[in-house]
Design brief:
single chain; alpha/beta; binds guanosine-5'-diphosphate-beta-L-fucopyranose
Length: 317
């Protein structure tokens, strides 16, 4: 009854991103042919180019992991890019997939689709039950449109397009630019820099009290492949780890794992965003999937990968 990827042509849109690259690594076990296209080969915002690429490549299955993504400040300061780019990317890909009879498509969203004050832990049914968090409503609206477009094609044409909503992700291939990154890579970089400079303080944005649930990108990719193989339904599926910490606790974990013993300063001129977004992942657990990377192991591994990146850059300069 499940979907089989073996022998299939599988397009991973966004294969250079953190999640897309994790999906490509995970697909190595599935006996499928992975199709990718770099940004210079295919502009996903260009409808004609996307149509032509799909017509030529004729994938059987699609993981739609391409998106303009970023942390709270990037979302808050570039609303036009987050709304327009994401709408274009997802509508172009979903329509082109339909036109060439793609058998199965998985659309990747985000936990920020839920209302700012959603009941916790957040069930899938909370979608559109209240107002969004203002710092990322632009991105959220685009992602909600993507879920709805998959549901619309499913309803009107009976195609097997599904959506997954991951919680806050981190891991291999993350963005470490302090202005545009998410919190995990930002804190890892800040603590590394403070340690290297012999600084006494590190700074977190906001009050430190917001709660976030974190999942390693490799666990997320494993869950996405699991859903591609085992889930076929109208409703989107939450992909969470259940591992929730406050931002202050996260900074303390990063400091401890990095061997940094200075002070943590709060920059309250920066936004907190949503106070809490812990997802209820009971539906995914009920299907039989569990995460395997603990937050502590994921932090240790990511810190060591970041050190390697910096040291490789330094030695090649
Ligand atoms: O990861 P993050 O940027 O995104 O921030 P969101 C999470 C929390 O960490 C916020 C705090 O309360 C930030 O204020 N924080 C503390 C920091 N220090 C830092 C720092 O140095 N850098 C960053 N970036 N944050 C995003 C959405 O929301 O979540 C996206 O904007 C997406 O659209 C993503 O949905 C998963 O969790 O607040």
């Amino acid at each position: 009854m499940g979907y089989n990827l073996s022998g299939k042509r599988v397009y991973v849109a966004g294969h250079r991103g953190m999640v897309g690259s994790a999906i490509v690594r995970r697909l190595a076990n599935e006996g499928c042919e992975v199709l990718t296209a770099t940004r210079s080969e295919l502009d996903l915002k260009n409808q004609a180019a996307v149509n032509a690429w799909f017509e030529k490549q004729k994938p059987d299955a699609v993981f739609l992991a391409a998106a303009k993504v970023g942390g709270i400040l990037a979302n808050d300061t570039m609303p036009a890019d987050f709304l327009y780019d994401n709408l274009m990317i997802e509508t172009n890909i979903i329509k082109a997939a339909f036109d060439v009879n793609v058998e199965k498509l998985l659309f990747l969203g985000s936990s920020c689709i839920y209302p700012k004050f959603a009941e916790q832990p957040i069930k899938e049914s909370e979608l559109l039950e209240g107002a969004l968090e203002p710092t990322n409503e632009w991105y959220a609206i685009a992602k909600i449109a993507g879920i709805k477009l998959c549901q619309a094609y499913r309803k009107q044409h009976g195609v097997d397009y599904i959506s997954a909503m991951p919680t806050n992700l981190y891991g291999t291939g993350d963005n470490y630019d302090l202005q545009s990154s998410h919190v995990m890579p930002a804190l890892i970089r800040k603590v590394y820099d403070a340690k290297s400079d012999g600084a006494k303080n590190v700074t977190i944005w906001g009050s430190g009290s917001p709660l976030r649930e974190f999942m390693h990108a490799d666990d997320c990719a494993d869950a996405l492949v699991f859903l591609m193989l085992n889930y076929s339904g109208h409703e989107h599926v939450n992909v969470g780890s259940g591992q929730e910490v406050s931002i202050l606790e996260l900074m303390q974990m990063v400091c401890d794992a990095s061997g940094f013993h200075g002070n943590i300063i709060k920059d309250t001129s920066k936004p907190d965003g949503t106070p809490r977004k812990l997802m209820d992942s009971g539906k995914l657990r009920g299907l039989g999937w569990l995460p395997s990377i603990t937050l502590q192991d994921g932090i240790d591994r990511t810190i060591s990968e970041f050190r390697n990146i910096v040291e490789t850059e330094t030695s090649s300069n």
